[in-house]
Amino acid sequence: MNEPAVREVARGVWVATARKYTTTTTIVAGSDGGCLLVDPAVSVADLAALAGWLGAHALRPVAGWSTHPHWDHLLWSAALGDAPRYATPRAVAAAAREEAGLIEGVTASAPGHDLTLFARVTALSGREIDWPGPRAVVLAHDAHAPGHGAVFLPDTGVLIAGDMCSDIEIPLPDLDTANPFGEYREGLGLLAEADAAVLVPGHGHVGDGPEFRRRVAADLAYLDAVAAGTDITDERLTEKWLRIEHARALARARAAR
């Protein structure tokens, strides 16, 4: 089994990065060898390697967190144990409502996962994850998906941002909402208030505090241009699917105007 690419980004916080979609998994150490596992991803082999890494480092998941209701952030495996897995209430409702489409997505893009464990998340009560470890404050918004719940760890200044503030993806607003660009700006504003020292995006590379602020500024500039119906050159528009999403966002903004 290949050792996953894991690095410690702050005291007691590790990030594993999968090759597929440059997807991140965050591991937060708690007490007595327990850990909080955020968005384990993304292939069956990746989750097996993750479980192996945790075992080798005497860590076991005692709680899981799904940042948002997209298939690549709702994964689990039996090797990770039976820890309770949480998401925001709106994310849980969206996952239940969109179950058929989510299953279609995971079976097409990452086949072989145990679907009896897929998307089995419970609505969080309160604004912090209740687990035996460092404070984990949930920053809930609807920018990228219903009930998107970033996690801020105030003890270490780590912001686990979910699918936002990426260095390889443009902002991807939920275009099915009435005000996608405004809601995305609100979500970015909420994240910016955390003033993070370490940023972990759902897809992309970990950044420090100045890089976090640079990405927020870049995302706001992108949103301002697209919301105004103006095309923009962005260095992240490298993949065909991102250019398609960019065109969809422009069309949505221009239709609204």
UniProtKB/TrEMBL annotation:
Keyword Cytoplasm: no
Alphabetic keyword roster: Hydrolase
Coiled-coil boundaries: none
GO molecular function: hydrolase activity
Pfam families (UniProt xref): Lactamase_B
Residue intervals of the Metallo-beta-lactamase domain: 22-203
Keyword field contains Hydrolase: yes
SMART domains according to UniProt: Lactamase_B
PANTHER family from the UniProt entry: METALLO BETA-LACTAMASE SUPERFAMILY LIPOPROTEIN, METALLO-BETA-LACTAMASE DOMAIN-CONTAINING
Protein name: MBL fold metallo-hydrolase
Organism: Trebonia kvetii
